[in-house]
Amino acid sequence: MPRLIFLAFIFLFVISCFKKSSPIAIGHRGAMGYIAENTIPSIEKAIELGADGIEIDVFKCASGELVVFHDLMLDKLTDLSGNIEETSLETIKKAKVLGSYEIPTLNEVMDLIDGSLILNIELKGSGTAGPTNELLKDYFKKSSWDPSKIIISSFKWEELNIFFNLNEEVPIAILTDDDPLKAIPFAKIIKAYAINPKYSLLTKKNSKIIKSEGIKLFPWTVNNPSDINFLISLGVDGIITDFPDRVNKK
After folding, report:
1. Catalytic site includes residue 21
2. What is the DSSP string of 119-141?
3. pLDDT value at position 9?
4. Of 19, 79, 124, 152, which one has the greatest count of Cβ atoms within 10 A?
């Protein structure tokens, strides 16, 4: 009997070694499936739901600060109108997202999370790479943040290239809504940590090719449980979702 128990233990240990690790859950713009996107309450909700990371968007506003907002224009989500890059922080702070929530600065988000989980900063606007790098360097010196807790991503590959030339310590992820294999050559140039593809474009074949290059995969934006399970079967490293509690992390 002791021998059978020992063999059973060995079998379970071997099986566990081959089992795919669960992907991390990254809250898309916080937990925008529950609370207004890119707001402090939305980020707090994602943390409450057990997110391993938070994805946010940043623009540089007219007065030079980095603000957390997705759209170039303020009109759709707030009670103000105009281009966010041409609006001062003083004015932006008067805006109400969906009538209730303040637009935060990147500093406010950094202070809230304080290095307790991963922060994926998407560079939405042009000219954001340099200011973001300067802000991060300051936080690395004075706080609990370190480069391993940050991911810089963007659809603006030129911004990623600028950031890479300024800072090779912070992980970079290439955002794409095209064939993810097309991102591999650029990923090699900037030593990208990950490719963040549109989830519906991932297949067993192309995900295997990308992973074989040593590049991680963080598909977006995945909300349907069946899609989440399919991506887990592909061995993706993280899932960007509006509902971080839907990612099974057993």
Report:
1. no
2. EEEEE-STT-HHHHHHHHHHHHH
3. 46
4. 152
